[in-house]
From TrEMBL:
The keyword Protease does not apply. SUPFAM superfamilies: Mss4-like. GO terms for molecular function: carbon-sulfur lyase activity; metal ion binding. Residues 3-119 form the CENP-V/GFA domain. It holds the Pfam family GFA. The lineage of its organism: Bacteria, Pseudomonadati, Pseudomonadota, Alphaproteobacteria, Hyphomicrobiales. Keywords: Metal-binding, Zinc. Belongs to the Gfa family. This is Uncharacterized conserved protein. It comes from the Bacteria.
């Protein structure tokens, strides 16, 4: 069963296959300012249904943040799949992962989800 996420005005709408078991709260300067809570999916699991208002902010070559250019809501993005990182060689994974701002999910009480904090301010 698909679950849907959209910005406030509906100009960006996406579908994901399932609800997350846990979400992350990143402390990087971008995420801290937007207040996003992220759920992660394989790139091919996320379907963009409406993209009329989609805009992209890419502060570096690693991360893409998508938001609605009409209402300003941060909806989703992509980044390297850090779970595949080789800490010993300090290489950046080439495989990307999709991140969905669970605050945009429709009819979901995100306050019941387990939240893990990522120290993005220090890590990147």
């Amino acid at each position: 069963m698909s679950h849907f996420a959209s910005c406030h005005c509906g100009a960006v709408r996406i579908a994901v296959p399932s609800l997350p078991a846990e979400v992350t709260s990143c402390t990087c300067t971008y995420c801290a300012r937007t207040g996003a809570l992220w759920a992660y999916y394989a790139i091919d699991e996320v379907r963009e249904l409406v993209t009329d208002g989609k805009a992209t902010y890419a502060p570096n070559i690693l991360n893409e943040h998508h938001f609605c250019a009409r209402c300003g809501m941060t909806t989703h993005g992509s980044s390297p799949d850090w779970s595949l990182a080789d800490a010993e060689n300090q290489t950046v994974p080439t495989t990307r992962i999709a991140a969905i701002n669970v605050r945009m999910l429709e009819d979901v009480d995100f306050t019941t989800l387990s939240v893990v904090t990522i120290d993005g301010r220090t890590l990147w």
